[in-house]
Amino acid sequence: MKTIALLVSLFGSLTLANAADTPPAHLYKGEVAGVACVACSKKVKASLEKLPGVTSVKLLPNGESGVAKIEIASTSPGSTKATAIKALGKAADDYTILTLEKAEAK
Prior knowledge:
By secondary structure, the protein is an alpha+beta fold. The protein has a single domain (24-103), classed as Alpha-Beta Plaits (2-Layer Sandwich), CATH 3.30.70.100. 37% of the residues lie in helices and 29% in strands. It is built from three helices and four strands; from the N terminus they run αβαββαβ. The chain has helices at residues 2-21, 38-48, 81-88; strands at residues 26-33, 54-60, 67-74, 96-103. Strands 2-3-1-4 form a four-stranded antiparallel beta sheet, with helices on one face. It is globular.
């Protein structure tokens, strides 16, 4: 009986691990201008995380140019440059989404 309980417990944890490792259905990559510091990066990231279905947002600042690379993982197929700009709200006055395109999921 203990063996069965152990196997059920082990199988359950493996199933959860595999579900967590499943990549999101949609990946978007692009660039955003105006990101000059860590605070800017945090503000843009927090805004983009509000998009429907977003599971993660990565921002990689690109030195002094102020243009950062963005990568958005989402369960939603409907993320666009326009929806990203809308998600920025008032911050869209300070940051410009230059590009945002669907990319191959990892």
